[in-house]
TrEMBL record:
Record's protein name: HNH nuclease domain-containing protein
InterPro entries given in the database record: HNH_nuc
Pfam (any one): HNH_4
CDD domains: HNHc (cd00085)
Organism: Mucilaginibacter terrae
All copies of domain HNH nuclease, residue ranges: 259-295
Length: 365
């Protein structure tokens, strides 16, 4: 296991496609199987091998309560949503998810719903292997199945349709041993059970005498002090300053513009920061193209003059606020002499960290 493996995991979490929850379900299931130290895990040829059926079982339990909650951006639904809904409706009259899980683990799936169940697990297996397993990690080397690999096997059916049936009939998948060891060490933090916020919430629930729920506490703890109103006020202030300029140039292209967006240099989705230094005028099409990408350090260097021009303009109009925000966010203990040079250098360092360590996608023209 090496440092690069941890960096790759950061890249996967930050840069791989987020159009569905499939990636999160795959990583969560893998981490849980490793954390449970499943006896079915085998280490061979520097890869950790797992029965795909164990992952299918995890997905059944993950998505069962979420079948009515959007899991894909836009209007599309889960590839297996309709079939899963049939199963959920069947068990809603028979005890819900607990009854389903009991049948899956102990009694076997009843004959009158077996056809639906078998169709469902085949759809889940196909979704797992052809979607997240295929594409996860493409942000690292552009290769399909670059981390996860799926090995099909001939059907070895057993009598009952249950969890053992899933294990024996859906082949295996594998991940590199380095990733297996990384997930062993950090999996519970990635997965949330040992994450600081989750532990904080659990403690708060106990301290309240169970009057609060983990969900209640997490909702409050995760609230940002920066609101939509703060964003609007900062942008309005910035636009009023720009009106004194006469001609406004797009910071990223240098082209004069009449219509422009106020763009966050470091995207708001990455860092909830509405400091005036972080707001710059940009062509709407470039702002849309940039979205949650991070300007590369080299591109910031190319646009240094335009960035510092706007910084100087803002500083003239709102000196106290601008200098306070710049000191706290970019200058730190450094003096204000040659402030623009120091601030650009720190901005480049911050962007480099977000790209190389955190795994966000670099952006340039």
């Amino acid at each position: 296991m090496n440092h690069q493996t941890f960096r790759n995991i950061n890249h996967i979490l930050a840069r791989d496609s987020k159009s569905t929850t499939y990636k999160f379900a795959l990583l969560r299931g893998t981490i849980e199987l490793i954390g449970e130290n499943s006896p079915y895990i085998k280490i061979e040829d520097q890869r950790a091998h797992f029965p795909l059926g164990l992952l299918i079982e995890k997905w059944l339990l993950y998505y069962y309560p979420l079948v009515l909650v959007p899991q894909i951006n836009g209007s599309a639904q889960l590839a297996f949503a309709e079939t899963l809904r049939e199963l959920v409706n069947y068990y809603n009259l028979r005890g819900g998810i607990s009854a389903f899980y009991n049948d899956l683990k102990n009694k076997g799936i009843p004959a009158d719903i077996q056809k639906v169940f078998l169709l469902l697990v085949k759809k889940i297996a196909s979704t797992i292997t052809q979607m997240p397993m295929k594409y996860i990690g493409t942000s690292i080397d552009g290769q399909h199945f670059g981390i996860y690999q799926y090995d099909r096997v001939k059907t070895r059916s057993v009598g009952a349709i249950d969890a053992e049936y899933l294990i024996l009939n859906f082949g295996t998948f594998s991940i590199p041993q380095d990733y297996y060891e990384a997930f062993q060490l950090l999996g519970s933090f990635i997965n949330g059970t040992d994450a600081i916020l989750f532990k904080w919430a659990e403690f708060s629930v106990r301290a309240s005498g169970q009057k609060l729920s983990v969900t209640d506490v997490l909702t409050e703890v995760m609230q940002s002090p920066v609101t939509a109103r703060d964003i609007a006020e900062s942008k309005t202030l910035y636009q009023s300053i720009l009106q004194t300029e006469g001609k406004v140039r797009c910071v990223w292209s240098g082209v004069p513009v009449v219509r422009y967006d106020i763009d966050h240099i470091i995207p708001f989705s990455v860092w909830k920061n509405n400091d005036l230094w972080n707001l710059l005028p940009a062509r709407p099409d470039l702002n849309n193209q940039k979205r949650d990408k991070i300007p590369s350090p080299n591109f910031i260097e190319q646009r240094r003059d335009e960035i510092t021009h706007y910084w100087s303009l803002i500083r003239r109009h709102k000196m106290h606020r601008f200098e306070k925000e710049l000191q706290i966010s970019l200058l730190g203990y450094q003096t204000k002499n040659d402030w623009s040079k120091l601030a650009i250098e720190q901005l480049q360092k911050s962007c480099d960290y977000l790209i190389t360590t955190r795994g966000f996608e670099a952006w340039t023209l």
